[in-house]
Amino acid sequence: MGYKNEAEVKKALGIDTWRSLSKDKVFQFAAMMPDMDREVALKIIEQLPEYTKFLTASLEILEREHESTLTSNSHSQDHVHRAYREIREVLKGKLGQEDIGWEETRYLIEQMMETARQESAKDTENKQFLDGIFKKAAIGAGAAAAMAIAFVGGRYILQNGGMSEDL
């Protein structure tokens, strides 16, 4: 169905005025954009500064959540590395005792090496976690940007092979 004027779009959205456009309806409106006359879509967009606020707020929430996750992860990593250091300090203290035999010395050294391997594995795991978090944040930001592009007529541009001079 091609929407030829604002009244048709409002009716399809079930609203009387653009002020009553809810966040849920914004997504519905964005999905309807390819079916709208380009001039009608642009005229409606000019009347919707709230969408920009909504998109900005969504990106700010995403940023705060990402920062919170990174901070929490950093604290967790600090605790893990501190625990491994403490274990190695205890083992070094035992190694410093004069009355230990070769078997016990070898065992303590092996334990120190094992904690180093475990800490290294934990560090690698954390880097993989951070990589995954970064990818999710990038996907979230990309989705928000894609919504913005669709909202301002990006699909029209893509469907018509580029940007026309009368856009």
Quick take:
The chain crosses the membrane at residues 137-158. This protein is mainly α.
List strands and helices in order, with pairings.
Layout: H1 6-13, H2 23-32, H3 38-46, H4 49-95, H5 102-151, H6 154-159
Helix pairs in contact: 4-5
Q: Give the H and E element order.
A: HHHHHH
- Integer count of domains: 2
What structural class do helix, strand and pairing data support? mainly alpha
Largest sheet: none
SS summary, helix count: 6
Give the N-to-C terminal Cα separation.
Answer: 22 Å
Overall 3D shape: rod-shaped
Q: What percent of residues are in strands?
A: under 5%
What is the C-alpha radius of gyration, as a whole number of Å? 29 Å
| Count of DSSP strands | 0
Low-confidence stretches: 154-159, 163-167
**Helix coverage percent:** over 70%
Mean pLDDT: 80
Descriptive report:
Keywords: Membrane, Transmembrane, Transmembrane helix. By secondary structure, the chain is mainly α. It folds into two domains: 42 residues, no CATH class; 81 residues. It contains six helices and no strands. α4 runs antiparallel to α5. It is rod-shaped. The C terminus is likely disordered.
Keywords summarizing the entry:
167 residues, mainly alpha, 6 helices, 78% helix, rod-shaped, disordered C terminus
